[in-house]
Amino acid sequence: MAHSPESAGLNNHHRDTLMKIFQHPTSHNIDWRTVLSLLEAVGTVEESGDGKVRVHVGEGMLFLEKPRHKDIDVQQVLDLRHLLTNAGYKSVVEELEARGVED
C-alpha cells in the first residue's frame, strides 16, 4: 500500500535509510534489506524469482536487481533518489535535516 510522504509513518531504520539515499556524496554502504524495508513502508514491492524487484512509490515505478553483495550500488542509489524525490520524499529528508533526524 502506497503512503503519503511523511516522516511520522517511518520508523528510525526507515528514516536512516532514507537519509543515506539522499546523502551527498553518495553513500556506498546502503544495505539491500534496509532499502527493501523502506520501500515496503512507502510503497509496494513485488519480488520475482529471478532476483528482480518491481517497486511502486507514488506514481513512479522502478525495477531493481538484487545486488551480488549486501549493499546497493551507486546507480541504484541514484535511481532510488529520483523515484523518492518524484514521490515527495525529498521534502521528508529536508524536514528531518531541519529538526535533526532524532525525534
Keywords:
single chain; 103 residues; alpha+beta; three-stranded antiparallel beta sheet; 3 strands; 45% helix
Description:
The structure is a single chain. This protein is an alpha+beta fold and about 100 residues long. The protein has one domain (about 10-100). The chain has four helices and three strands, in the order ααβββαα. It has a three-stranded antiparallel β-sheet with strand order 1-2-3, covered by helices on one side. The chain is globular and about 40 Å long.
List strands and helices in order, with pairings.
Layout: H1 12-22, H2 32-42, E1 44-47, E2 52-57, E3 60-65, H3 74-86, H4 89-99
Antiparallel strand pairs: 1-2, 2-3
Mean pLDDT over the residues:
89
Overall structural class, as computed from helix and strand content, comes to alpha+beta
Radius of gyration: 13 Å
Major sheet attributes: 3 strands, antiparallel
How many helices? 4
* Distance between the ends: 25 Å
Give the total of beta strands.
3
Apparent shape: globular
Proportion in helices: 40-55%
Total number of domains: 1
Taken as a percent bin, the fraction of beta residues is 15-25%
In the sheet with the most strands, the strands line up as 1-2-3
Q: H/E order of the elements?
A: HHEEEHH
> Which runs of at least 5 residues are low in confidence (pLDDT < 50)?
none
